[in-house]
Amino acid sequence: MIRAIGLIGCSAALCCQMLAQDSRATIVPGQIDHDGSLPLEARRTSLRPVLAGRPLNRKFAVFELRYADEMREGRMLRSAQHKYVVFNSGAHPEQLFDLTADPGETRNLAKGKTSQKLLRQHRDLLRGWIAQTNDDFVIPIKENS
Predict the structure, then answer these.
(1) Residue 105: how many other CB atoms lie within 10 Å
(2) Using alpha carbons only, how large is the chain's radius of gyration in Å?
(3) For 44-79, how does the pLDDT look when each residue is reduced to its tens digit (9 = 90+)?
(4) Is 20 within 8 Å of 13 (Cβ atoms)?
């Protein structure tokens, strides 16, 4: 999971590379694994290889979405080409975007009949990540939907 805590000045290239390659990083201003002072409770992967120009060999990244209303939260899974977002509530809790064809994220593919296989693939990736990391987030979509 990547958490940007008050991050300012991250280059777009660095952030995109982290998104595509690292699913368990925490970013704290001025502390990208240089001094070892990141919180111990944070699930993270060192970003030092990215800063050195080496890939982290990740197929996706997961972000935690939290709001002032502590009852509303979500997760975002970013794969190489797609962005899958799911919230724990709402009339339409899922979003899926093809970031190559629609970089402005104006067409939600989650409701399209032709995108259901792709939607299930991303939902399954997120479910697997949730199980692997003992995340307590619950995807509010039944398995057969």
Answers:
(1) 13
(2) 16
(3) 566 667 777 877 777 888 888 877 777 889 999 999
(4) no
